[in-house]
Structures are given as structure tokens and as C-alpha cells.
């Protein structure tokens, strides 16, 4: 493995150095000069000394090591900053001209005419010459003593073997390009050679053995997860290929997908005027965009192009969220709800593998240190307790102050604490309110004086605390006082008081007030949330150093290479964000955290984005996840779960004497008990709920308002009958009738959760019918949304939402601590973002009429107050960045949000999700016998029957022994001969050739589908009869047809088909085989019968060939086990899936109600002014889009939330953590914040259940137990 190789490179060095340190007398005797070869011994001693010097095993060597690290950081820093001083990529900035030829010669080497021009070696700098010179000498010295590192490198031939080793290549990559540029190609400016300077960062991995682990860990993860990772990749690639093909079919004619951004004169093109020919080539000359070649093109013009955009959406990002057509939104919804979870399996496997490796290494390192887990948890508590036990001298003023402030020894002290807490809350409220009041008004002045008074109180309190701290022996003297001043809350005191007064003088406005927000950390005393961060850092220091170093390497490398690939991108937006490496680092940081705010990359950039999304995000996210997981672990360790006693109704308490037979009958009937009629009635309720919810959704679409009205009437009548029966039967319902008479039980039922839901779903319908001119009837969209509450009725049968109170009780203490930490960070980052962006007018954004801005809008309009900043910051803290147009300070703030806050803010939602899963699972186990998730989890009758047939011979053919023999030969040709004892498969040479041909033909067919979708290739081949693609497809179908019938013929000898041809046809493999050939026969049958099949229709038939990817399932089990996965988790999926649907549909209804007329999403014809007059109103002057269309017929439209299906598409994307739009109304922002806090986590629980089940069912979750040489590396770290 690569990790072992890395260790091997280091091991001889450590061994040699250890022997020198541990046995100096042996070393001296071994190197003592002898008379016969004094010269050779002296030479050897010098080489050993040089080797130890280079490996930092001597004091001078340690200094040299620090010096080389400084050189590396200097070189990388000058490389990054040099991009800021390149004039051609920083147009409009004066900064490139601030560095003259002497400055450039010293630091950057951007210009050929700098002060080093006389050298004649091209553009270079003093720093570069110095660094390359020292590293070149360093490399030659390492080559000289290479045999001391490993005897294999001895002699000339051994030195040649040393050159291709990892660190040797790093050294060469960081120095050789300089010599090539300077002496071989002095007149060429090679960007690639400049980029190779970044490899000098890898030299830092030589500093300590633990940095070798940064690379070896990747190898260990890949090796340990090789089985399930291969399967997950197959699933992911197949889903990607199939969805890419379908997106290509539905979007390739969509005019909204036509892109002209790469053409400098075609920024704003009316795509409706563009023409797409039969091959898919776009011509926009009629729209005024003309030029050589295809100036504009459809983003889904081929499966290759579609593959990139589909990949982005499978990452959970939807940059084209508002450009998809109807069928594209259907596919987008499917992608957001289901496919994203399946495609995330490879990244999840990698992340899980890193977690496992980190846990293993931490355990072994802890064992080597002799450290007991949790040993540091009590120290903080002991210190606080000790401080409380210290009594100040009441005879002195200092002692009295100490007892008052530190010990809180009197009721007045408690009142003072309460007073300061009120001031803290008041300052926070004042900061938020001050952001929306008139800066010249009296309220603004009052809030300012209140904050000043509060800060004076805080300053006096801090001074008195510092003055009286010496009463505690631990804080006496200078050192004790410094130790006290460095405590967490004392640092908060300084950071909130000193900057406030400084900023009050030099930066008046909201900036001083922001620092007072820091005092919300004082509520930390109630939870000790943030004081545990030092424990987290110390416990995870070794792992954070490894993973953090890897993350930084990835960040800088990808930022640099994307700078070179995208700085000349024809898309102005992309080019602007990659104009310098610091700019590139901002967007790359978001990419590595799982975001894709930009999408129109170059071809190389698209490949890099795919690599980042597939693999780099898993590695980059490890240190962030460690901080979040460490925080959760510590608070979980401190606060145990406290489940309540589950309320169970004792049937003996039911007063049977007062329950009549009719009441009991009604109760049993509505709950499906006692008769077939009752069961049928219960099932009809299920069906009606689903039907009426679907009708309510469809009726929001323009033109379908009256669809299903008769069904709605029928449903209301049946629901009314159900409600009456439940009301009558309440006297027999144990939930209401215990210790109650019939009347009291019915009163309890009327005010119960389910009764209220029923009444809200029924009563408005009758009221609207009885009062046709009422407000409800005039606002029937609200009535339709109320009907969606019927989904909550399903909670009676499958408890889901009603379990949330159980979850909160179970996790209440952990949740309280985690929520405090998350909310504190949310409020603080909101304040910081408000301060940084409230005056950010640099970058323009779309019109925001709802916020009072129509033209020239900027980020300052979005962050105009603390309250408008709150939901935007909440979205960012969930890890999503739909907005990236931030200034320098905003980027720095969000950098820290990505590093630490994102992990911590996610903890409360994670606690809720895990608690919900625990309760659902416990309730499932209480109803059923406990099931252990294993390879047999989710097995159905087929799997059971398959195991029963083990060892049984196949049945004989009714056609005689000759057919028997032929079936066996065909079976062995197709699938090989299976040894029943060992399970090994052996194949004849003929069978192996057939298998290779089968795989090759599958790959060739998939490749043909992809190539045929490329317009240029399709046009070159043509559509004439007998063209290459048609002939190839015909021969392929013939081959697959023969294969299909051969499998049917030999199925009686195949245990996989339960020895039945009919069973084979119904299996996953049989269905896939049929799907891959049937469309060709259907298409040709239509042609033969005279039906005209257009080219577009023919493409739909041909695209089904992509399903031949699934035929590779014969070689890697994955999809055929998905039904087992669903069955294994069906009980949990019932509850969590219902809750996810309720959240999805419920929040969609709220977003539809609140956002359907949001002017921020309104678009009007160019002839309509944005703002008008009384006689001619503008686009944004109307309260509703319908009113706009009434005045300007068919000239106004909403880009989002136009109806419930459209809204459900957007919300499905939101629930995946991707906020494609954010400029909501204030009501919509409340819904947005709910989803950020809890909705997204609850919605994702079914996905987590499926992921856990997937690995267990396919039986590939076993860990590899070989962990050789790891302890050696860990011991070297300790040395």
C-alpha cells in the first residue's frame, strides 16, 4: 500500500537515529578510526553527520528544518500574492501597479523587465532564486546520503532507484521547473511550471512522521473500504449515467437552457428567438448573437454536457434551479429526493472510512500514552468547586468584593448577576433593534446610551473581579493574576469592553455595539459549552494536525490550479472570481465544503469540480467534522440521555360498565378492527388522504382549479362520517376514556391534536360552501392548503410527528446545551455579517423590490438590518452558500463559519434526528422481535427460497436428457461452473471469451449512446438508412436478444432463477435484460406498421440503451439488493418517511402561500416599467402577479413558487440543503429558519437509515483487521 511505502521511506532513518541516540557508545565505537582506513571512516562519519543534520536529528539540524519551513511558507506566500499583481487579470485595480520593478524582482517575478532582467533568465525573483538554490543543494545532499536512509539506494544504480521515490519527486517538482524556465525556455512563460512551486508544501511532510500519515491514511481508507466503495461507485456512476441521459432528453430543446455567456457581445439574449436544428446545434443570429461557430449552445446539448450538470445536481447543488422545464423539474425533484442520497454513497463511504481510521489511530495513541478516556472532564468542575469553597476576608474591602462577585454569597449578589444578565440581553436586543430604527431618532439615542451604561457596568465589574481575584490563593501574585485574566470569561470581558470604547471613538455606528454581543458567552456558565473547546482541541490535536494539514494542501492546490484554468474563462462571472489566487481560494473553499456556487467552468475546470465533489470534499470535511463530533461527544458525555417513563394506558382503568356496545363498535370500526368492512374502511381513509392531498396540489396549477371537485366532496363526506364515528367511539378509546365518563372522553377528543386536524380539514369546506361570498371562498388557495393537513391524519396509523415531544424529552439536556452553542454562534455570526455587509455596495445583484430596491441593488440591501441578516447567515451556517458576492471582511467571517461554526450549528438538528431514529427504532422493536441488521436483513420469499435450494440439484428437463445436457452447457457458458463446496467459479476459455465480449459490448453500447448525443458526431454520421449507429445497434440488439433467450433456456439449471424461466424473467436481471432490447423492437414495429417516428422520438427509444449499464450488475451486486435494503428498513421508513413527506408538503404549502406573489421573483415584459405611476403602474407596483397580468395581459410572471408542484420542486431542493433562492418575504424567512434549524435534519433521517442498511445488506461493511506498522508510526510521533 502507499501508506506502507511512505512508512518504509521513514523507518530506516528513525532506526538509525534511534540507535545513535540510545547507544552512543556503540555508535562511537562503530565509527572509531582505524589505522588501515582512517580516511574512509572520517568520510563515513561526515556522511552520517550530514544525514542526521538533514533529518533534524541534531540541534543545528532542527534549526535548519525550521529555516526550510520558513522558506517553503515564504515561497508559497509570494506565489499566492503574486497573482494579485498581474495587471491583465486585475483590470480596474491599481494594486498591480503599486509593485514596481524592484519590488517585483525581490518578491514575485511577474515581469520580464524587472530589476533582474540583466540575468537573461526570464521573469524571476530573488526569493525564487534563493529558495531554488537552497532546495537544490538540499536535494543533492540527500541524494549523496540516500544509502543511509535505505541500503537499496547504495551506489549509482541505487541512487537511480531513489529518484522516483515520493519525496524525491516532490523535491524535483519544486526545483527542476525553475531551471527549465530559466535556461531551456527563458522566453516562455509556463503557467504549469509556476504551479509546480506549490509542491514545496509537500516538503513539510518531512518535518514529522505524523504528516506521513496524511497520505498513508488515504491509502488505508481506500484499502479498508475497497469492497463497499467499489459497489457504491458502481451505484453512483450508474445513477449518474441514467439521469444524465434523461436530463439530456427533456432539456435539450429547452430555450431557457441556451447559454451565450461565453460570447462577449451576447450577455442578454432573448433565447426564445434562437433556433435549434435537428442535430441540437443552436443558432441565435435572429436574437442578435452571431459569430463564427456555435456562439450559443444548450447546456444539455449532449449526454456529455448533461453529465456535468447532472453531476453537480447529484452533489446536491442546483445552479440551474429556475431554468429547468416541466419534465426537468420532475427529474430535479426525483434527484433531490432520492438520487442525491444514492449518489452520496461513495463520499459517505470515504468519510466513514476516515472516521474509522481516525478512531483507530486515536485509540492506539491513547494506549501508548496510557491516557484514560474522559480523564480531563472533571478538572474544570473541580476548579470551579475549589473557587466556590474559597472564602474572602470579610474584614477587607477586597474580600467583600470577592465574596460578592466570585462566591455570590448573598441574595444581593444573585440579584446583581440577574441584573448583568438583563443588561446582556438588553444589549443584544438593542443591537438588533438599532439596525431598523431611524439613526436620527430618539430611540436610536436611547439605545446608544443604554449600551454605554451597560458597558460601564461591565467594565466596573471586570475591574473589581480583577482587583479581588487575589483573595483566591490560586490567583495570587503576577502569575496567578495572569492565569485568572486568561480564563475564558475574562477574555470575553476584555474583547467586549476594550473594543467597544475604542470603536466608540474611532468607528461610531453599530460596530461598537457588536462587541457587546460577545457577552452572550456569559450564559456559558449554565452549560459549559464553549469552555470545552480547548478539551476538544487537545483530545484531537494529533488527528486535527494530520487532517487539517491535508485539508490545507487540498485547498491551496485546487485554488492554484483553478486559478490557472479559469482566469481566462470567457464567462465574466467565473473569470472575475478566479482573477487572483486569493479570490480563487474563496470559491475553492466553498467547493471543498460541498458547494458549487459557480458552474460555467472550462473543460478542465469541470473535471476538477468533479474530482472535488467526489473525493476532496470527504477529506476536507474531516477536520470540520472532528470539531463538531468532538463537541457533541463531550456534551453527550456530560449530559446523559433522560428518557421519560413512557405513558402506557392500563386497560384495567377503563370503565367498561360505561362503554356501550355501539361505542366500542365505532371505536373498533374506525381503527380497522373486528371485521373486513372495518379494514376496508381504514384502507379507504389511507387512499382518500393520498388522493385529496394530490388533488389539492394539482388544483393550484393554473387551469386545473376544479380538477377532482367531486372526489373532494366524497372525501369530505367520508371524513365527516369518520370524525363522527371517532367522536362516538371516544368513550371506548383508552387515550381519552381512562378515569372519564363518555361525555368527558368526547370533550377530551374534541380538543385533541387529531380532532383539531380533522376539523381544520373539514369545517372550512362546509363554511365555504354555505357562504360563497365569504373570505375563505375568495381565498380558496388557503382552503386547498388546509386540506393538506389531512396528511397529519396518517400520524394516527403511523406515529411520526407526534413522536417529536418524546424526542425532545429524551434529548432535552443535550439539546439545550447544543442549542445554546448553536444559537450563540448564529447570533454572533449574524451580527458580524451585518456589520461587514451593511455598507457593501461593490457588487450588484438582481432587483429586490420587496426590500425597497429596484435598480443598482447590492448585498447591502440584503443585509440592511440584523433581522434580514439572520436567515441568510443561518443558511450559510447550514453549509450552503447561494450568495458569494461578499467583500473581503465577509469572506473572512464566513471562512471561520465554514471551519468551526458549521459543525457546531449542525449539532442540535443532528441530536433531534438521532433521537427520533432511536425512538422509532425502539418502538419498532417493541412491536416485533428484535432483528439484527446483517446480510440476511430485508430478505423476502425469494431470498428464503434461494437458501432452501442450497445443495439441491436442478430439476430435470421435461424434454429429455439431451436438453438437460444442453441447458447445463449453456448455463456454464454464461455463468461458469460453481463449486458448491467452495463457491468458486471456474470458466472454460470459450466462456471467458464470451464474458469479455459481453462486457465490451455493454461498454461499447453505452459509449455509442453518449457519442450519438453529441450534435457534431450525430450530424457527421447522419440519419441515412444503414448509418453506423443504426447498424451497430441492430447487431447489439441481436447479441443481447440471443443472450436473453439463452438465459431463459438455461434458467431451469440456475439457482439464481430458482430453477424457473418465468422466475428469471421476473428477477432484476431478467427485467434489465428485457428493457435493453424491447425499445428497439417497439420502435421498429411502429415503423413497420406505418407510424411516423420522428428523430426526437427515436432518440427516446435509443436512450434506453443506457440501461445496459445495469447489466454490469452481473459482475457487481448492488441494485438487485435495493429491495432488500428497503425491506430491512421498512418499519423505520414508515415513520420517518411519513414525517419527511409531511415536512416536504407542509413547508411547500407555506412557501406557496407566502411567496407566490413575492415581487422579488416577479418578471415582466421589457415594455413594462419596474416602477410606474398611478395611470401606468410598474411591474412591482402590483400586490399580486395576477393583478399585474390583469392590467398587462400575459406580460407578467413569477419565476418561482407559481403553484404547488413548482413549489414542491424548490422545497425538495431546499430540504437537501441547497437554497437556490433566498430573497423571501418575512414569513418565508421564518419557514426558511425552521428548515435550517430542524426541518432538513428530520427530512434526512430516512436517507441515513437507507445508507446504514445498504452496507449491511450487501455484506461489505466488514473492516479489514490488518493494521501493521501503525504503532511504529505512532511511536515515532511520541518520540
Automatic annotation (TrEMBL):
GO terms for molecular function: potassium channel activity. Keywords: Ion channel, Ion transport, Membrane, Potassium, Potassium channel, Potassium transport, Transmembrane, Transmembrane helix, Transport. It holds the Pfam family Ion_trans. It comes from the Eukaryota. The keyword Transmembrane helix applies. It is a multi-pass membrane protein. Residues 65-359, 415-631, 680-921, 996-1255 form the Ion transport domain. The keyword Cell inner membrane does not apply. This is Ion transport domain-containing protein. It comes from Stephanodiscus triporus.
Amino acid at each position: 500500500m502507499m501508506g506502507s511505502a511512505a512508512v518504509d521511506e521513514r523507518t530506516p532513518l528513525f532506526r538509525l537515529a534511534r540507535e545513535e541516540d540510545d547507544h552512543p557508545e556503540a555508535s562511537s565505537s562503530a565509527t572509531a578510526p582505524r589505522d588501515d582506513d582512517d580516511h574512509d571512516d572520517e568520510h563515513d562519519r561526515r556522511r552520517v553527520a550530514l544525514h542526521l543534520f538533514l533529518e533534524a536529528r541534531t540541534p543545528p539540524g532542527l534549526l535548519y528544518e525550521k529555516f526550510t519551513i520558513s522558506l517553503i511558507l515564504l515561497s508559497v506566500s509570494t506565489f499566492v500574492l503574486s497573482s494579485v499583481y498581474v495587471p491583465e487579470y486585475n483590470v480596474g485595480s491599481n494594486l498591480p501597479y503599486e509593485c514596481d520593478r524592484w519590488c517585483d524582482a525581490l518578491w514575485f517575478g511577474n515581469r520580464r523587465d524587472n530589476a533582474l532582467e540583466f540575468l537573461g533568465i526570464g521573469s524571476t525573483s530573488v526569493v525564487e532564486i534563493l529558495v531554488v538554490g537552497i532546495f537544490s543543494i538540499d536535494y543533492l545532499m540527500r541524494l549523496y546520503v540516500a544509502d543511509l536512509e535505505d541500503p537499496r539506494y547504495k551506489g549509482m544504480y541505487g541512487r537511480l532507484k531513489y529518484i522516483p521515490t515520493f519525496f524525491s519527486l516532490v523535491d524535483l517538482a519544486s526545483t527542476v521547473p525553475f531551471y527549465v524556465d530559466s535556461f531551456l525556455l527563458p522566453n516562455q512563460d509556463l503557467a504549469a511550471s509556476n504551479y509546480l512551486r506549490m509542491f514545496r508544501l509537500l516538503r513539510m511532510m518531512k518535518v514529522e512522521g505524523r504528516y506521513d500519515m496524511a497520505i498513508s491514511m488515504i491509502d488505508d481508507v481506500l484499502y479498508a473500504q475497497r469492497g463497499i466503495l467499489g459497489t457504491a461507485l458502481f451505484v453512483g456512476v450508474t445513477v449518474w449515467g441514467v439521469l444524465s441521459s434523461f436530463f439530456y432528453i427533456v432539456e435539450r430543446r429547452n430555450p431557457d437552457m441556451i447559454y451565450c455567456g461565453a460570447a462577449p457581445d451576447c450577455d442578454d439574449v432573448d433565447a426564445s428567438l434562437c433556433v435549434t436544428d435537428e442535430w441540437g446545434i443552436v443558432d441565435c443570429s435572429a436574437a442578435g448573437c452571431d459569430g463564427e461557430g456555435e456562439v450559443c449552445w444548450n447546456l444539455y446539448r449532449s449526454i456529455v454536457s448533461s453529465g456535468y450538470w447532472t453531476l453537480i445536481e447529484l452533489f446536491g447543488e442546483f445552479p440551474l434551479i429556475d431554468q429547468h422545464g416541466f419534465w426537468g423539474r420532475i427529474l430535479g425533484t426525483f434527484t433531490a429526493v432520492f438520487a442525491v442520497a444514492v449518489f452520496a454513497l461513495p463520499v459517505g463511504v470515504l468519510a466513514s472510512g476516515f472516521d474509522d481510521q481516525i478512531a483507530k489511530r486515536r485509540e492506539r495513541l491513547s494506549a501508548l500514552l496510557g491516557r484514560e478516556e474522559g480523564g480531563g472532564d472533571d478538572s474544570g468542575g473541580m476548579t470551579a468547586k475549589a473557587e466556590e469553597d474559597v472564602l474572602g476576608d470579610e474584614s477587607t474591602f477586597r474580600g467583600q468584593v470577592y465574596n460578592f462577585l466570585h462566591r455570590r454569597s448573598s441574595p444581593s449578589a444573585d440579584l446583581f448577576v440577574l441584573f448583568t444578565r438583563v443588561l446582556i440581553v438588553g444589549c443584544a436586543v438593542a443591537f438588533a433593534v438599532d439596525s431598523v430604527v431611524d439613526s436620527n431618532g430618539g430611540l436610536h439615542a436611547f439605545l446608544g446610551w443604554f449600551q454605554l451604561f451597560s458597558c460601564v457596568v461591565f467594565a466596573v465589574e471586570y475591574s473589581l473581579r480583577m482587583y479581588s481575584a487575589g483573595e483566591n490563593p490560586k490567583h495570587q501574585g503576577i502569575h496567578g493574576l495572569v492565569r485568572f485574566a486568561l480564563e475564558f470569561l475574562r477574555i470575553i470581558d476584555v474583547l467586549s469592553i476594550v473594543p467597544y470604547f475604542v470603536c466608540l471613538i474611532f468607528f461610531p455606528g453599530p460596530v461598537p455595539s457588536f462587541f457587546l454581543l460577545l457577552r452572550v458567552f456569559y450564559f456559558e456558565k449554565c452549560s459549559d459549552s464553549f469552555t470545552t473547546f480547548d478539551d476538544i482541541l487537545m483530545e484531537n490535536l494529533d488527528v486535527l494536525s494530520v487532517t487539517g494539514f491535508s485539508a490545507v494542501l487540498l485547498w491551496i492546490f485546487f485554488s492554484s490550479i483553478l486559478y490557472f484554468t479559469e482566469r481566462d474563462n470567457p464567462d465574466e462571472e467565473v473569470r472575475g472570481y478566479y482573477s487572483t489566487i486569493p479570490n480563487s481560494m474563496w470559491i475553492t473553499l466553498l467547493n471543498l465544503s460541498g458547494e458549487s456556487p459557480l458552474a460555467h467552468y472550462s473543460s478542465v475546470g469541470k473535471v476538477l469540480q468533479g474530482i472535488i465533489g467526489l473525493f476532496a470534499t470527504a477529506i476536507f470535511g474531516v477536520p470540520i467534522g472532528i470539531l463538531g463530533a468532538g463537541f457533541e461527544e463531550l456534551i453527550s458525555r456530560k449530559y446523559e440521555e433522560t428518557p421519560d417513563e413512557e405513558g402506557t394506558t392500563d386497560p384495567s382503568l377503563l370503565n367498561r360498565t360505561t362503554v356501550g356496545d355501539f361505542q366500542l363498535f365505532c371505536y373498533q370500526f374506525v381503527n380497522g378492527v373486528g371485521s373486513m368492512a372495518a379494514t376496508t374502511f381504514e384502507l379507504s381513509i389511507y387512499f382518500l388522504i393520498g388522493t385529496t392531498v394530490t388533488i389539492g396540489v394539482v388544483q393550484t396549477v393554473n387551469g386545473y382549479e376544479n380538477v377532482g371537485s367531486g372526489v373532494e366532496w366524497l372525501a369530505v363526506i367520508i371524513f365527516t362520517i369518520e370524525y363522527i364515528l371517532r367522536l362516538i367511539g371516544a368513550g371506548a378509546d383508552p387515550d381519552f376514556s381512562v378515569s372519564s365518563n363518555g361525555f368527558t372522553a368526547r370533550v377530551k377528543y374534541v380538543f385533541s391534536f387529531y380532532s383539531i386536524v380533522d376539523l381544520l380539514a373539514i369545517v372550512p369546506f362546509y363554511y365555504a360552501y354555505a357562504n360563497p361570498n365569504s373570505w375563505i371562498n375568495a381565498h380558496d388557495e388557503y382552503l386547498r392548503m388546509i386540506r393538506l393537513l389531512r396528511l397529519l391524519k396518517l400520524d394516527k396509523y403511523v406515529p411520526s410527528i407526534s413522536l417529536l415531544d418524546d424526542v425532545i424529552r429524551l434529548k432535552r439536556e443535550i439539546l439545550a446545551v447544543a442549542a445554546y452553542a448553536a444559537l450563540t454562534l448564529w447570533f454572533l455570526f449574524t451580527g458580524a455579517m451585518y456589520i461587514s455587509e451593511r455598507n457593501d455596495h461593490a457588487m450588484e445583484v438582481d432587483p429586490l423590490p420587496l426590500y425597497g430596491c429596484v435598480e443598482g441593488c447590492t448585498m447591502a440591501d440584503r443585509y440592511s438590518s440584523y433581522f434580514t441578516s439572520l436567515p441568510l447567515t443561518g443558511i450559510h451556517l447550514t453549509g450552503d452558500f447561494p450568495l458569494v458576492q461578499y467583500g473581503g471582511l465577509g469572506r473572512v467571517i464566513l471562512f471561520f463559519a465554514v471551519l468551526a461554526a458549521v459543525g457546531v450549528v449542525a449539532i442540535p438538528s443532528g441530536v433531534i434526528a438521532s433521537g427520533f431514529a432511536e425512538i422509532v427504532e425502539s418502538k419498532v422493536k417493541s412491536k416485533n422481535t428484535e432483528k439484527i441488521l446483517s446480510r440476511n436483513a430485508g430478505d423476502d420469499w425469494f431470498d428464503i427460497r434461494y437458501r432452501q435450494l442450497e445443495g439441491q440439484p436442478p430439476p430435470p428437463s421435461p424434454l429429455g436428457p439431451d436438453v438437460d445436457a444442453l441447458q447445463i452447457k449453456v448455463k456454464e457458458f454464461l455463468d461458469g461452473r460453481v463449486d458448491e463446496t467452495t463457491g468458486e467459479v471456474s470458466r472454460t476459455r470459450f466462456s471467458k471469451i464470451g464474458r469479455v465480449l459481453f462486457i465490451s459490448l455493454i461498454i461499447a453500447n453505452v459509449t455509442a449512446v453518449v457519442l450519438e448525443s453529441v450534435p457534431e458526431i450525430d450530424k457527421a454520421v447522419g440519419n441515412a438508412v444503414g448509418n453506423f449507429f443504426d447498424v451497430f445497434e441492430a447487431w447489439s440488439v441481436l447479441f443481447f436478444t440471443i443472450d436473453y433467450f439463452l438465459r431463459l433456456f438455461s434458467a431451469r439449471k440456475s439457482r439464481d432463477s430458482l430453477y424457473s424461466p418465468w422466475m428469471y424473467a421476473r428477477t432484476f436481471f431478467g427485467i434489465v435484460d428485457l428493457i435493453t432490447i424491447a425499445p428497439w423492437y417497439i420502435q421498429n414495429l411502429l415503423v413497420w406498421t406505418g407510424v411516423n417516428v420522428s428523430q426526437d422520438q427515436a432518440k427516446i427509444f435509443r436512450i434506453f440503451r443506457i440501461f445496459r449499464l445495469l447489466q454490469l450488475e452481473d459482475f457487481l451486486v448492488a441494485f438487485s439488493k435495493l429491495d432488500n435494503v428497503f425491506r430491512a428498513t421498512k418499519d423505520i421508513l414508515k415513520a420517518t418517511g411519513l414525517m419527511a413527506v409531511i415536512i416536504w408538503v407542509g413547508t411547500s404549502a407555506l412557501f406557496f402561500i407566502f411567496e407566490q406573489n413575492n415581487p422579488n421573483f416577479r418578471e415582466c415584459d421589457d415594455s413594462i416599467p419596474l416602477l410606474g405611476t398611478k395611470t401606468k403602474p410598474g411591474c412591482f407596483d402590483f400586490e399580486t402577479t395576477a393583478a399585474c397580468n390583469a392590467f398587462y395581459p400575459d406580460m407578467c410572471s413569477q419565476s418561482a413558487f407559481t403553484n404547488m408542484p413548482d413549489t414542491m420542486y424548490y422545497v425538495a431542493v431546499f430540504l437537501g440543503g441547497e437554497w437556490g433562492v433566498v430573497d423571501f418575504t418575512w414569513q418565508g424567512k421564518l419557514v426558511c429558519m425552521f428548515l435550517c434549524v430542524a426541518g432538513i435534519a428530520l427530512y434526512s433521517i430516512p436517507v441515513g437509515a437507507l445508507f446504514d442498511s445498504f452496507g449491511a445488506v450487501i455484506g461489505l461493511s466488514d473492516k479489514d483487521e490488518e493494521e501493521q506498522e501503525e504503532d511504529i508510526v505512532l511511536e515515532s510521533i511520541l518520540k
